[in-house]
Design brief:
Layout (H helix, E strand, L loop, with lengths): L1 E2 L10 H14 L6 E5 L4 E4 L5 H4 L2 H6 L3 E4 L7 E3 L5 E5 L2 H28 L6
Parallel strand pairs: 1-2, 3-4
Antiparallel strand pairs: 2-6, 3-5
């Protein structure tokens, strides 16, 4: 696995990270899995099949400066901000079935370790 790191720590808008995933999947991923972490300013992210009016309070988002963005993949509607650490894991299509169990285990171990670290520092975990 290769950790993809940007040359700076600038927080970018969500479409940048979605485009980065797409670029890496189409042009870099192959035999090696890719991974990167990122954060965004307040943003509501909704899937390609969701009806935005049913999922998002658009007026509230506009009044409060919350960006809204549709991703190409499916899935539920989520809110992200700088309190979240978003993770992207990219693997080749023909490798996904073989690696999906390993990805689930890896994700669980990462989350468990983060929670343990936060608890030892007496951070509030929601």
């Amino acid at each position: 696995m290769i950790y993809v790191e940007l040359p700076d720590t600038e927080v970018r808008r969500l479409p940048f990270y979605l485009a980065m995933e797409e670029y890496l999947a189409r042009n870099v991923a192959g035999e090696t899995d890719l991974f990167f972490m990122w954060q965004v300013d307040p943003t509501v992210i909704f899937g390609r099949n969701q009806i935005i009016d049913n999922e998002v309070n658009i007026d509230y988002c506009r009044r409060n400066g919350i960006a809204m963005c549709r991703r190409k993949s499916g899935g539920g509607c989520v809110f992200a901000n700088r309190d979240n650490i978003m993770m992207s894991y990219i693997t080749a299509n023909d490798q996904f079935a073989r690696r999906s169990a390993a990805i689930r285990v890896w994700s669980r171990v990462c989350c468990e370790n983060w929670v343990l670290t936060l608890r030892t520092r007496r951070a509030t975990i929601y």
